[in-house]
Amino acid sequence: MDTRGTNRNIAVCIILSMVTCGIYMFYWLYKLNEEINALADEPDATNGALVIIFTIITCNIYMWFWLYKMGERVDRIKANQGKPAGSNSSVIYLILAICGLDIVDLALMQDTVNNAVA
Questions:
Q1: pTM (predicted TM-score)
Q2: Residue ranges per structural domain of the chain
């Protein structure tokens, strides 16, 4: 078991994000940022608090950039686990975010973290 991440129930995270009007989503985003950076062996890549601040200041535009970068790290985590290369999570995350489905991106990232720490 990997101590660099937490295995979270994705459905509970989504429900809590909706019930708290997005407040829990910011906590979840912070934790995902820290855990993915640790699992990708880039602990100083981005700061979770700054991701939240820049996302709020730029009216969610910074989150698109952040999701693209997280897609690269997720692909690196999958490659480290021996999963087939060629996945392009960055583009998928960006397209989903532009369509307003940021929470789906977070769920996909959490699934990668869950698989990595299982």
A1: 0.90
A2: 10-117
